Amino acid sequence: MPTYAEDRAEIENLQARYLFALDWQDPDEYAETFAEDGILDWVGGIVEGREAIREEGHGMREYFTKRASGEEPTRAPRLRHFITNTVIQVDGDAAWSRSFWFEIDNDTRLRVPYVGGYGHYEDRIARIEGKWLFTFRKIWNECIEGRQAEYVNPVRQMGHNPG
Description:
Distance between the termini: 30 Å
Number of strands: 6
Number of domains: 1
CATH topology: Nuclear Transport Factor 2, Chain: A
Strand content: 35-45%
Structural class: alpha+beta
CATH class: Alpha Beta
Radius of gyration: 16 Å
Strand order of the largest sheet: 2-1-6-5-4-3
Order of helices and strands: HHEEHEEEE
């Protein structure tokens, strides 16, 4: 049986792989961080199932790289997301995580890096066939109306349905 430290390292690796896939707009790797029946709850809606998440990833890629009427895109595909203050609870093959995230952006209008968004993740994670995968990820975004977190410490809800 793996130790908590080993499980935590694997879960942190999953979270990092997710962000690298997001920032390099790699929809296949992005989707592979989710279980077959995983759920992504983000500003674009609730997406259910790995294949639907993969398609959502393709849509994200198109959004970040599109050019309309020969104009520069409003956002260059040079986003960098970071996770901090991660709390992970492991119970056998199930885990829950809460972490802050923020995004550094360099769009084509300003050409200087700035914080483009921030919020927190609420995750349910499962070890499936020896591999940790997201079964549910909710992305709270403090910069988007309707996606701001409630004024309740999300760590108090660990092990409960974050949705």
